[in-house]
Design a protein that fits this description.
2 copies of one chain form a homodimer.
Chain A (H helix, E strand, L loop, with lengths): L1 E6 L3 H11 L5 E8 L2 H15 L4 E5 L5 H11 L3 E4 L6 H11 L2 E4 L14 H4 L2 H7 L2 E4 L7 H12 L3 E14 L10 H8 L3 E5 L2 E5 L5 E6 L3 E7 L4 H8 L5 E7 L2 H12 L8 E3 L2 E3 L1 H8 L11 E14 L2 E12 H8 L3 H18 L7 E4 L5 H10 L4 E5 L10
Chain lengths: 405, 405
């Protein structure tokens, strides 16, 4: 039996905390630590009320304050830190984990505040440090990144000798009833999607303007949805770990109204990440936008519809062409009923807890820094389905997938 | 020969200052005072360079600081204050004028910061004070409000026994080449146009949702443009001063892209005028939006096209139906070439200077608070045309005007 420390108190942390509390056979106790301790207390109180699980402690912590976090880790001595706060904080939390000798898991790769550039280089650079310390760092264990890589590893293990084409497809066919809101931290979301797109082809990255490649892809139980190629961080590790891949792309659905709002937000300068002087105070427009937009955590109550995220793969098995699709659909309302958070938080928090469970039960082990496709996918996917994210697969994909010859 | 004090250093103040300097026979010298004295200095330097007029002094002043402004007025002793800064500041400047015994002119009616409610009540309440002091306060002497009321007074004087229907039509058929920008202070502009619309009919105000009445009106030398009914402050004084008016409306043109941007700005909460807490600082979203949007003063350089603003009137003359249209068209590029400011600033600054000239030359006189339609329109309109805003008129309007039977 083990104890973990969850850093963060947003929707993803809420889901992961609920899920840990549902499995006291692994998570004997845990701490939730965040800048605003009242948010941690609220989650702890809800868990005790809903699940009767009382082994949650809380603490106030600035995750960018390495000495303070090191001290808190040394005081609580968790078996694993689950970092479910902001990706800006990956490195300071990894540093504190190394100081205190504690293993680490996160759901999004490090990104410097001043440039929206998603790449694993910053965190892969910790490889030797974690190896030397005999500690494990599990990077990107949400849904995407996270489950999509485990799906790919599962496909490689069971259905392919060589993967040639990989398309990760991410649909949110939900409706939260607000004029405009982002499904997770708007600051991170808008930084991510206003970047140039990028995909891997024939050994190099092809850069494209944002939203310049669009197709109506067909999603199971959802139907066709306008989908756009954008860069997503798991592509970087997947093409490294599966070098037979000739092309890897990431597709995400966006509605026309969402894109209109995004275009205006950029036009009026509110997507900017450089500070501007306003009445003697430096304000970063995108951070202020986050303040005025609805809290993604508030979207759950009236959220209807579902997400559908999976991998469409083409390659070779036993000398023959093979196509394959593996995916999960998640209902927003069901996620909210169980955890008080909507589906986008749910599909990130459940894999985070499942990855933590893999580590704590010894299924995923090793000293160093790992992306999740480097581990055995089978026990993870078994538990993932049991924990609320059942997945489906089929060999032989339909024509909507539009793979090249 | 007289001297005036211009308060403000934006586009309108720049135009008015240039125009005053072009008429040293009336404006022997003047001061430009504003919170940021460097902006005043820049206008003074440009005027000296372009026009060889060196009688401009500048000062730093917070127009909301009544004692400081009173002291500055007592020191400079102008014959008139031309308030061309923000409408929030009307009352403090009127107070300082009363303290110092100096007459007053502005271009927009007072509006409290905390509610976007345009009405003359606040300023009309100063009637007795100005009367007792033997001072003149001239309210709303820009284009609209301002010239539109003088146009109406001119129509009433020369072409109608009774005005029954008045439609003020304001087209900006210009293109500044920016994705989105407002033509004057974005804070004031967005407060104004996101309000419910309102027009006068049969003795009462009819309130309508924003942008809910639209017609394609035809503008001279411009053609048809989508035009929307909104409330504009001069309607309030016109229906009071011309009680025969059965219906008075104000129309303004907006492009679809402008309205899309406006809709998104409201959806995302950036049109809000209540402060929100952001990192421990109270920020008013609309004020911050003003900070990130292009400075309207920067639009001039590449601005093409023209404005067209006028009054369409129906009524009775000598017992017969009469229709009449009086308007001005103003080219942005020409305004910029002359003053370094675009047409929307030009059409406000020129009437402000012309009104000041009316007061200083004794054409407009009286103790108390006045709206401009209460004065003799003839000398004003003669000078207005000479000063760069020639106007045209015709009896018998075309069917695009769509008056009711």
């Amino acid at each position: 039996m083990s104890k973990v420390m969850i850093i963060g108190a947003g929707g993803v942390a809420r889901v992961a905390a609920f899920k840990c509390a549902e499995h006291p056979e692994v998570f004997e106790s845990f701490m939730i630590a965040s800048r605003t301790v009242s948010k941690c207390d609220r989650i702890a109180a809800d868990i005790e009320k809903e699940l009767g699980y009382a082994n949650v402690t809380t603490a106030a912590i600035d995750a960018e304050d390495v000495p303070a976090l090191t001290a808190l880790l040394n005081e609580y001595r968790p078996d694993l830190v689950m970092h479910l706060a902001l990706p800006y904080q990956d490195l300071t939390i990894m540093d504190a984990c190394l100081n205190a000798g504690i293993s680490y898991l996160d759901t999004a790769n490090y990104e410097p505040k001043e440039e929206a550039k998603f790449e694993y280089g910053h965190q892969w650079a910790y490889q030797q440090k974690f190896k030397d310390a005999g500690l494990t760092a599990i990077l990107g264990c949400g849904f995407d990144p996270g489950v999509t890589q485990v799906f790919t590893a599962y496909a490689a293990k069971h259905h392919f000798d060589e993967i040639h084409y990989l398309d990760i497809v991410d649909a949110n066919a939900g409706d939260h009833g607000k004029a405009f809101a982002t499904n997770f931290n708007p600051e991170i979301n808008i930084r991510e999607i206003t970047q140039n797109g990028k995909y891997w082809e024939n050994g190099e990255w092809v850069e494209i303007p944002p939203f310049s490649i669009r197709k109506d892809l067909n999603y199971p139980d959802v139907g066709p949805k306008a989908s756009y190629v954008l860069f997503h961080e798991e592509l970087e590790s997947l093409v490294k770990n599966f070098p037979t891949i000739k092309r890897a792309r990431f597709w995400m659905t966006f509605g026309d109204e969402y894109l209109t709002h995004l275009r205006v937000i950029e036009n009026i300068g509110m997507a900017g990440i450089q500070p501007v002087m306003h009445k003697g105070v430096e304000i970063i427009p995108l951070e202020f936008l986050k303040t005025v937009l609805p809290d993604p955590g508030s979207l759950g109550e009236n959220y209807v519809g579902q997400t559908s995220i999976g991998c469409r793969i083409k390659g070779i098995k036993d000398g023959k062409d093979q196509t394959y699709y593996i995916w999960n659909n998640c209902q927003h309302a069901q996620a909210y009923k169980e955890t008080g958070a909507q589906g986008v938080s749910y599909t990130t928090g459940v894999p985070a807890m499942t990855g933590a469970m893999m580590f704590l039960t010894g299924e995923w082990a090793g000293a160093g820094v790992f992306n999740v496709e480097e581990f055995n996918p089978d026990p993870f996917l078994k538990k993932l389905a049991e924990h609320g994210l059942p997945w489906r697969e089929k060999l032989g994909v339909d024509t909507e997938m539009e793979y090249p010859d």
